[in-house]
């Protein structure tokens, strides 16, 4: 399933049925992104939702939503119009009352996640609310 448009060059993708594994294959440090094969439907209503099971984690992992214009070597949630749930316990990219900021990027503190956890990510297409 490997596709140069789907992930950063420092990642290797493998797929078995509906399982996809992203493996960091180079020694350098930095942000790496993987795009879904299917995009969010362009609809006025409904819920778009997906889940990710964390089988192993060796660094910070962010699960989120981004536009197709987002650079693959940037942190989802830091780029305008993107949102992410970070394994260190932060929700990035959504400006809400009482949120904190780091380098002008909004975030809120939320529970951490790690190995064995299933992380759900969704958006209400009618109200444009992220969960």
UniProtKB/TrEMBL annotation:
It comes from the Eukaryota. InterPro entries: B30.2/SPRY, B30.2/SPRY_sf, ConA-like_dom_sf, Gid1/RanBPM/SPLA_SPRY, SPRY_dom. Gene3D superfamilies: 2.60.120.920. Residues 1-131 form the B30.2/SPRY domain. Pfam families: SPRY. This is B30.2/SPRY domain-containing protein. The lineage of its organism: Eukaryota, Metazoa, Ecdysozoa, Nematoda, Chromadorea.
